[in-house]
Amino acid sequence: MKYQLHFTVPTFTEEFDVFPNPDNYDYWVPLMRTFIEQSDTIEIHCWNDEKDIIKETNLLFKDSAEIIHGRDITIIKGSKTEDILNHLLYKNVKINGKLKWFSIFLSRNKVTLLHSEHWGTAFFAPNLSEEDIAFTKSVTPKKTNFNLYK
Question: In a 3-state reduction of DSSP, which class is residue 16?
Fold first, then answer.
């Protein structure tokens, strides 16, 4: 049986900072590696004012990038490459310790595998086995909130 899983990792907010930010992103690499390795397409959403992040991300996709400029957000979508995989896994944090991208969508053959939202603090995976769920729970922080649907 396959399940849909929505989960949010514990975050904190500083007095004047409403940016969701976990204590650390230790869960990021094992969690994302599992889903990125299965994917063939990566879609990244950035706020339009994050010009350096947009430029950096666009360069990673090289010739495969499809760019959509929305009113508030820029969407960069393309085929998975080794450069993108390594960047998403190991060069993913800004100087201030926060994840670079607001949203990341991973898919294979146009079927969604994982949505990462709100700078890596909220996730949705629509087609997981019990083993996938157990793995996800094993790599995320202890106080992660899980909502499971059949």
Answer: coil
